[in-house]
Amino acid sequence: MNLGDEYLKVVQERFKSVKDLGDKTIGQLANDEIHWNLNEASNSVAVIVKHLSGNMVSRWSDFLTSDGEKSYRNRDQEFEDDISSKEELITVWEKGWNTLFETLNGLGDQDLLKNVCIRGESHTVLEAIERQMAHYAYHVGQIVYIGKQIKDENWETLSIPKGKSEEYLQHMLKRHQS
User: Fold this and answer.
1) Which pTM does this prediction carry?
2) Which partner for 51 in 78, 133, 140, 150 could form a disulfide, CB atoms 3.0-4.6 Å apart?
3) What is the spatial distance between Cα 122 and Cα 32, in angstroms, rounded to a whole number?
4) How remote is the C-alpha of 20 from its chain's centroid?
5) Alpha helices in 29-164 (DSSP H)
6) What are the backbone angles phi and psi of residue 120, rounded to the nearest 5°?
7) What is the chain's pLDDT, residue by residue, as a tens digit (178 residues)?
8) Exposure pattern of 114-134 as b/e (b: 16+ CB <10 Å)?
9) What angle do CA 18, 19, 20 make, to 5 degrees?
10) Is the dihedral of CA 40, 43, 46, 50 positive or negative?
11) What fold, for 3-177?
């Protein structure tokens, strides 16, 4: 395997890890909780999911052949909280991620240094992937943070629980010694 193909494999694993954090957070939220926001300047989980999905569909559709900011995208509408149910939220969420993963699966080493445009600005495919990774991780972090605020003491941790770092380290060291 060459460096480019290894990069594409690793970046897909990282995107899946980011998605998994969102999946596990959304899974903990009730129908009404997806619409919670702290104040008017804040976004709900439903709004963040709409924005992420809209971005993903725009950026990753016809990725190598058209600008990542599609004419059919209405970015401002993504910030209107009009998702009717958690089921609809999950459908919107999966549509975006499926578009991303289908495109990434079709890329090869030979594509990484090709140029693509986002809002008329040229990026290598490698740069475009990294740009979107940072964007998606940022917003999924917001989703997790909102979920923790909503669930409070009922939050099921997605990582190493507080006070359990040493125990986790020892578990991992034993696991990797075998």
Assistant:
1) 0.93
2) 78
3) 41
4) 9
5) 45-60, 86-106, 125-151
6) 85, -10
7) 799 999 999 999 999 999 999 999 999 999 999 999 999 999 999 999 999 999 999 999 999 999 999 999 999 999 999 999 999 999 999 999 999 999 999 999 999 999 999 999 999 999 999 999 999 999 999 999 999 999 999 999 998 888 889 888 888 888 899 7
8) eebebeeeebebbbbbeebee
9) 90
10) positive
11) Four Helix Bundle (Hemerythrin (Met), subunit A) (1.20.120)
Cα–Cα distance, 48 to 142 (Å, whole number): 8
pLDDT for 87? 97
Give the span between the Cα atoms of 154 and 150, in whole angstroms: 9
CA distances to 20, 48, 102 from 37, in Å? 22, 11, 32
pLDDT score for 152: 94
Provide the residue ranges of all domains of the chain, joining segments of one domain with +. 3-177
Two structure tokens written together for 120:
């008329």
Count of positions (residues) in the chain: 178
pLDDT confidence of residue 100: 98
DSSP 8-state code for residue 164: -
- Which run of H or E residues covers position 17? helix 3-28
Both structure tokens of 43: 């976004």
CA gap 24, 65 in Å, rounded:
34
Residue type, 148: K
Per the DSSP assignment, residues forming a β-bridge with 115 are: 124
Task: Let me know the angle formed at the C-alpha of 45 by 43 and 51, rounded to the nearest 5 degrees.
Answer: 70
